[in-house]
Amino acid sequence: MIRAARLLQPADDPDWQLVAAARARDEAAIRELVRRMNPRLFRIARGILPSDAEAEEAVQEAYLAAFTRLDSFRGEARFSTWICRITINAARMQARRPRPEKDHTQVTDDLAASAEVLVFPGAETAETGAGGREVRALLEEALARLPAELRLPFLLREAEGLPVLAIARDLGLNPITVRTRLYRARRHLRATLETRLRGGFDTVFPFDGARCARMADRVVEALRGIERR
What we know:
Blueprint: H1 16-23, H2 27-48, H3 52-68, H4 79-96, H5 104-116, H6 130-144, H7 148-159, H8 164-171, H9 175-197, H10 209-228
């Protein structure tokens, strides 16, 4: 029987107690760790892989790898850092797997779908109603069109708020390379969003259909009233 590695207690790891319980196979602790880590791990996997389904599969594989090897986790780094690296490896392995060939129409449909449904996990509030969903969909479509080498650093920086040095460490890149990729990602996104928004302002504040007809009725009725005076 392999003995579990001694678990250190980093002062700055908010997940330490949950990890200790998860090592004892506490299902509630495992569920809570999954709940906490889902948004970040999904974003990481989706930053590497071209579809939601593949990203979810990679995240599941990462969880299984992490929790079956949890006895080897010593706590020398944060649990979140450790499992993020596992997710990056799982997603990269998934990206290298051969994909079944599809005809041109199916590939085009898949690309369109993946560009439209890059849904980031998180509860929707009243403030993020229809308008917020439309903005999010526009941003997600633009992000989905970024090359993976640009998308992942951008998501880690802008969605997760990680500093450049942490991104460089987790991705095994030079910090200068990370900064360059962030710059290129922002430039690509700006160009994509400008293209999508160009000429689109003629659709805002619509006043047509029944509203337009009612306005005409009110104006005509008011004019008749003036003539009768």
